[in-house]
Design brief:
- The complex is a heterodimer of chains A (213) and B (309).
- Chain A has 213 residues and is of the alpha/beta class.
- Chain A has nine helices and five strands, in the order ααααβαβαβαβαβα.
- Chain A folds into two domains: 81 residues, Methionine synthase domain (Methyltransferase, Methionine Synthase (B12-binding Domains), Chain A, domain 1), CATH 1.10.1240.10; 122 residues, 3-Layer(aba) Sandwich (Rossmann fold), CATH 3.40.50.280.
- Chain A has a five-stranded parallel sheet, with helices on both faces.
- The radius of gyration of chain A is 18 Å and the shape is globular.
- Chain B has a single domain, classed as Alpha-Beta Barrel (TIM Barrel).
- In chain B, 52% of the residues lie in helices and 9% in strands.
- Chain B is built from 14 helices and seven strands.
- Chain B has a seven-stranded parallel sheet with strand order 1-2-3-4-5-6-7.
- The longest helix of chain B is centred in the middle third of the chain and has 24 residues.
- The chains are: A alpha/beta (213), B alpha/beta (309).
- Chains A and B meet through helix 4 and helix 5 of A and helix 6 and helix 12 of B.
């Protein structure tokens, strides 16, 4: 890897947004391909942060500060990526299910998905099955991510799965579920496609789904 | 032995006549007792005389509910400071100090909600000294408030700032040491100095910061969340000689598990928490609204059958 890309990755991991911006601009000025800067500098740095997060070597604040640095770099890169025709690695629709207003876990997963180069459509909290469905169709999403914190609201996830089935679109998306009370057996029982215990693993799984599409 | 004495013995790492119980909140009063606890909103627009009457009726209702449930610690919530103080005095008078009362008393940073999280995290990185100044102010305010509550007869404070997700702490241990621990220590110290009891509650996987929590010298740790992988057996072995333990009965099973899972969780918590004292039997969250009443009754029945030393 080129030294400047390694530097971008390192400064990103340390959450140094201004430095990341500066280095991304410098890399562009040196004629490095924008997709290479994205993949080998920014996303590579977020991958390392994601792995460290899974291993409890870094914690949520470090991840969010790194994500801020990544977004600063992406802000510089974006026009170049668009003109070079570099496409997103996939699209995910995410939200906290109907009746549940908690969004900490949902926001973490969103950050991690963006850190994998996916486009994320954030529907917020208290999202109905119909809203998940409409957003997935409108955005041609490959992934639907449902979050719940409450034992009393997690059953709404089944309604999301059932709604996609009723509409005949169940096979066109992968439905991922997560949140404090959610387990693999619950995921299996409602017919969702994937449960992960943490945000970084959710992003890994989502990227794999998109790559398989 | 009064409920208060029983709770105090457990919180002091001693062995009472039987393992006490309580809950951080009890949300099943409408289903099990045909009424609910008074909230500050319900007092809006009432005259002073009507307010006094409502507070008195609420105190009587609380005593009825918690006496029947067998709680040793009574949680006082949903009211302003002034009305909590009045309620505490009413309950202590009605019961001749039978119970140990508790109310919220934390003043440390909890995991921020979605809207505030990014702002908080960026401030940790960009202006740590300002964050510490805010932490000091919050702790000082909590200490002052806690003193007023204790002066009114609320003998314990439950410190409910959540620090952990299921996967682990929100802040790294190093950040916890910098932004939480000194302030939590001061709050617990002030409670002790005022003759009160500090019960530190947090959801989630506390194991990476367990020792740091204990170093803050709360009397007890509450919830010991099995959904986050917290094993009361391991916690008891590691720190059971320094801090009392409350909880570990798997709350989600009460909603979604089988009867066998509920009873097995009760058995595990009781068998590993009870030996030698220093344990208060309760769920890992609260009996929340919507939970099947019979499931919580199962927990209480288990407790009654297995609580004696």
């Amino acid at each position: 890897m080129m030294a400047i890309l390694e530097e971008i990755s390192t400064f990103l991991q340390n959450g140094r947004a201004p430095k990341v911006k500066e280095l991304v601009q410098q890399a562009l000025d040196e004629g490095i391909d924008p997709a290479t800067i994205l993949n080998e500098g920014l996303l590579s740095g977020m991958d390392i942060i994601g792995e460290k997060f899974k291993n409890n070597e870094v914690f949520v604040p470090e991840v969010l500060i790194a994500a801020r640095a990544m977004n600063a770099g992406v802000g510089i890169l974006k026009p170049y990526l668009v003109s070079a025709g570099v496409e997103s690695k996939g699209t995910a629709v995410i939200g906290t299910v109907k009746g549940d207003l908690h969004d900490i876990g949902k926001n973490l997963v969103k950050m991690m998905l963006e850190g994998k180069g996916l486009t994320v459509v954030d529907l917020g909290v208290d999202v109905s099955a119909e809203q998940f469905y409409n957003a997935a169709v409108e955005n041609n999403a490959q992934i639907v991510c449902c979050s719940a914190l409450l034992t009393t609201t997690m059953n709404e996830m089944k309604n999301v799965v059932d709604y996609f089935t009723e509409k005949g679109k169940r096979d066109s998306v992968k439905i991922m579920v997560g949140g404090a009370p959610v387990t693999q057996s619950f995921c299996d029982s409602i017919g969702a496609d994937c449960y992960t215990a943490d945000a970084a693993s959710a992003a890994d799984a989502a990227l794999k789904f998109c790559q398989a599409c | 032995m009064t409920h208060r004495e029983r709770a105090v013995l457990a919180l002091s790492l001693q062995q009472p006549d039987y393992v006490p119980t309580f809950e951080l909140e009890y949300q099943l009063a409408p289903e099990m007792f045909g009424g609910d606890f008074l909230t500050e909103d319900a007092l809006k627009g009432l005259s002073p005389k009507e307010t006094e009457k409502a507070l008195a009726e609420n105190a009587e209702f609380m005593v009825k509910v918690y006496s029947e449930l067998g709680y040793s610690i009574l949680p006082l919530h949903y009211l302003s400071l002034e009305h909590l103080i009045k309620t505490a005095k009413l309950i202590n008078k009605l019961t001749h100090d039978e119970f140990l009362l508790t109310a919220h008393g934390d003043g440390t940073f909890a995991i921020p909600d979605g809207d505030g999280m990014l702002d908080f995290v960026y401030r940790l990185a960009d202006e740590p000294e300002a964050v510490k100044a805010e932490a000091r102010k919050m702790a000082d305010e909590a200490i002052e408030r806690d003193k007023r509550l204790m002066d009114a007869g609320i003998g314990s404070l439950i410190l409910c700032s959540d620090y952990c997700f299921n996967a682990g702490p929100f802040l790294s241990p190093a950040m916890f040491e910098e932004f939480i621990q000194p302030y939590l220590y001061d709050i617990c110290k002030a409670i002790r100095e005022n003759g009160g009891y500090a019960i530190k509650h947090t959801d989630g996987n506390i194991m990476p910061i367990l020792d740091m929590l204990v170093e803050c010298r709360p009397h007890a740790l509450h919830s010991l969340d099995p959904m986050a992988g917290v094993d009361i057996r391991e916690v008891k072995q590691r720190v059971g000689d320094k801090v009392a333990l409350c909880g570990n009965v798997h709350c989600a099973y009460l909603q979604t598990g089988t009867d066998e899972q509920v009873l097995e969780s009760c058995r595990y918590a009781m068998e590993n928490g009870k030996p030698g004292g220093g344990y208060i039997f309760c769920t890992s969250n609260v009996p929340f609204r919507g939970m099947p009443v019979e499931r919580y009754q199962m927990v209480l029945d288990f407790w009654k059958a297995n609580r004696d030393y």
